[in-house]
Amino acid sequence: MKNADLIFDLLGISSNVPLTETEMARDLRITFLPPHSRTERTKEFSSILKKTLVKVGVEVIPIEEALTEDKKVKPNIVIIEEGDAEDGNLGIDHVSGLYQNPIIGINDGKPPIPDNADLQETLDSIVSVLAWNLAHVPVFVEDDKWTICTMNGAIVKCGDWRDPAEDVMNSLVPKLSAQVVPPKRDEIVYRERVFDAEKSGYGDYIDDFMSSASVWKENGLMIAHTKVDDLEYRNRYYKRIVSRYLDNRTGMSYGFMVKQLPVDVEPAIELYEADPELQKVDWENINLYEKDGENYSCIELLGKKWIVKLPDVWVLSTRSGCNKTNLDPEKDILRLGLHNGEITIETPMKIGASACRPSYDTFAILAHGMGNIIIASILLALDADAQFPAALKNNGLSISHWHGYPDQYYPLSGYLLHGFENPPVSCSTPQSAAYALSGKMEAIETQRPPVRGYRGDVHVEPHHGTNITGAMTLTESAEWVDRMHKGITTDNNEKLVVSGE
């Protein structure tokens, strides 16, 4: 997938990333620990699961072959553990490194979610299981069904576990292949205490953040915060492990608000009309080419090959871990960029780098930003009066993420819907960035010719949430979600345009 390779090159990610369920299954290596405890049901489930994994193409390694000399599981092997373990014998006690071995925990019974729980209570219940058992993907097995849970709050209800092939391939495999890991801090360029929200000239944008936060707070659709200190742990040692895994965050918040700053994009140029040096580039094997200090790429879209100049991406973003519905504008909004080929964070004046950890959504945010630039450049070449590039140039674009999903029949003029058929990966994964960029291209590709009224896209991330990207302000996006959730009718009968229709 060439568009995926482009974003991987831009973000410094290895291009050897599986993007389909089949590729993910073939990329996986899994071992089963000896059961800590078991019931007849978990025993039968584990046996069926092992056979099914082999059937769909996963390499299942006997535990004897999976261990190192010091009895740790070798790197890049997923661990499956069954039942409750004693302290010191959990799956996490057998990993070779904190991010080296994703862990599935098989449990007998239904997920411990209170009846009639709201979004926050549901998330807190699942995170509590993760904190106690230190399994990245808890699985709960009942008489006639099974449920997969993840640390980003996904609760995937599966069918009969006696015939689990479809659920294993389409739900479990992607969650194991695409591990939830934030960008490493040593891969980020920090500029500490340089972003002054008050003096930046972005006052209107800051007001938009605050107004949007109020809408999300009132409707309760953007989950606020789960504090690490409020969770129950087996002991201090395991609490420290959780803290290290979360990069010493005080808690986990879900959703984000981002304002992509204005960019004066240049119109794309058809390859045959481009500079001779750019025409001679082997674009079949090269995704990025630098000329005179500028990056260029060749994008195939709408039956043509376009040379697009790729300027830096800069956004204002809510700070990772902050309460998105109760923002402090002097501490909770930072400047994030893809600048000179490096992910760059400019921290607010009142806090330093230690309080501004890279968001789990960093890759996806920057992929959306670069995708917007590419789309705007090509649309501008096709139509000098197109709305989208004008919006990006004059006022920037908004990107909002919440852990819910759009109704494709609820009107949102000028926005294209895509992504609902992608493998259900979580945030922070290279796959999420690939699907963000490629999805925009594929959505535009289905609209021949692209309408002058294109204003943005709605990117569904199955089992995770939705990104709304485009010309609406952050507040307008939040209000649209609020109206949709409440089922408020409008005078506009135009539905979301689904990619492929």
Largest sheet: 10 strands, mixed
- In one word, what is the shape? globular
Strand elements, count: 23
Pairing-aware structural class of the strands and helices? alpha/beta
Residue stretches low in confidence (pLDDT < 50, at least 5 long) are none
Report the portion of residues in β strands.
15-25%
> What multimeric state do the chains show?
single chain
CATH class of the largest domain: Alpha Beta
Tell me the strand order in the biggest sheet.
Answer: 8-18-17-16-11-19-22-21-20-23
Rounded Rg: 23 Å
Count of DSSP helices?
Answer: 13
CATH architecture of the largest domain: 3-Layer(aba) Sandwich
Summarize the amount of helix as a percent range. 25-40%
What's the number of structural domains? 2
Q: What's the pLDDT, averaged over the residues? A: 90
End-to-end separation in angstroms reads 22 Å
> The CATH topology of the largest domain is what?
L-fuculose-1-phosphate Aldolase
